[in-house]
Amino acid sequence: MKTIMNAIHTRWLSHLNAITSLRDTYESVLVDLENATASGTDKVRIRSGPSATGLLKKLKNAATIRVVHFLCDALKPVSQLALAFERNDVELSTIHPQLQSTLITLGRLKEKEGVNTTKSSELIKKINITWKRNELESVHTA
Question: What PANTHER family has UniProt attached to this entry (predicted)?
């Protein structure tokens, strides 16, 4: 059973784990949100966060799917770099090459889609979402 992980504000690895768990459970999350909306349990309580309907609208959007998948590609090298800084025996001589490698990897993602971003198209087709022209342009620009 897969669960959605929490992201901890100061821990990059937790962000990678959280976004990866969302990517891995995306279809199930959509089904749960659709069920909550259809069953009438979509009530919003003050300060309880967004409603199921609101989340469903955001998540059932091609641009959101692309961004979630892109973040899986981008956060991996960032998390690896953060882990290098967190080691007790960190050596500055090893940090600079790792930093350069991270920057190169992120730069490549600007020019060519990563593995996860490429796979986002499969999910978009599978759940039958059509792209709107302005969504495609906004995701590509970001």
Answer: DUF4371 DOMAIN-CONTAINING PROTEIN (PTHR46880:SF5), RAS-ASSOCIATING DOMAIN-CONTAINING PROTEIN (PTHR46880)
Q: What are the tokens at 77?
A: 């090298």
What gap in Å lies between CA 86 and CA 123, rounded to an integer?
35
pLDDT tens by residue, 45-93: 555 667 888 889 999 999 999 999 999 999 999 999 988 888 778 787 8
CB 48 within 8 A of CB 41: no
The span from the CA of 28 to the CA of 12, in Å, is 25
- Mark residue 113 as left, alpha or beta (left: phi above 0; alpha: psi -120 to 50; beta: remaining): beta
3-state helix, strand, coil in the chain (%, to 5): 70, 0, 30
